[in-house]
């Protein structure tokens, strides 16, 4: 399942992909409901996701049977400290809050795939 992309879904055996059209970073959060509904209606064995904001769905999705895999592409809290769209004064406090939330949510994942050696 992918939250947003400009790619077309490629048919693959035993794999269902749900792709959303690319939108603004703020619209990504509005897609939670669509993502949640798609997962709740699915009978998949595995759910593999990449987007850190989807970690917030795990507490309610853990009621569903399945294996939840999170593909961590970056140190998201650390990356927030460099985002120009976040006011400078809020970057470090926000990163610290997100770090704590992420740590709790990662415990709900069955597996985490790291793309980098350094967290």
* SS field, number of helical segments: 4
Number of strands: 5
- How many domains in all? 1
The radius of gyration over CA amounts to 15 Å
Give the rounded overall mean pLDDT: 82
Oligomer: single chain
Structural class: alpha/beta
Name the shape in a single word.
globular
Q: Low-confidence runs (pLDDT<50, min 5 residues)?
A: none
Share in β-strands = 15-25%
Give the end-to-end Cα distance, rounded to a whole number of Å: 25 Å
The main sheet orders its strands as 3-4-5
Helix-residue proportion: 25-40%
Strand count, sense and barrel status of the largest sheet are: 3 strands, parallel
The topology string of helices and strands comes to: EEHEHEHHE
Describe the structure in your own words.
The chain has 119 residues and is an alpha/beta fold. The chain has one domain (2-114). 32% of the residues lie in helices and 18% in strands. It has helices at 32-41, 58-61, 76-80, 88-106, and strands at residues 2-5, 19-21, 46-49, 67-72, 111-114. β3 (46-49), α2 (58-61) and β4 (67-72) form a beta-alpha-beta unit. The longest helix is centred in the last third of the chain and has 19 residues, at 88-106. The mean pLDDT is 82.
């Amino acid at each position: 399942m992918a939250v947003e992309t400009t790619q077309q879904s490629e048919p693959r055996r035993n794999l269902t992909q749900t792709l959303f059209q690319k939108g603004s970073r703020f619209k990504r959060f509005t897609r939670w409901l669509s993502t949640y509904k798609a997962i709740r209606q699915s009978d998949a064995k595995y759910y593999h996701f990449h987007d850190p904001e989807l970690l917030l769905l795990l507490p309610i999705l853990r009621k569903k049977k399945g294996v939840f895999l999170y593909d961590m592409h970056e140190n998201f809290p650390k990356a927030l400290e460099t985002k120009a769209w976040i006011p400078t004064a809020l970057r470090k406090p926000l990163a610290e809050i997100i770090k704590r939330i992420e740590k709790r949510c990662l415990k709900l994942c069955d597996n985490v795939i790291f793309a980098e050696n350094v967290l």
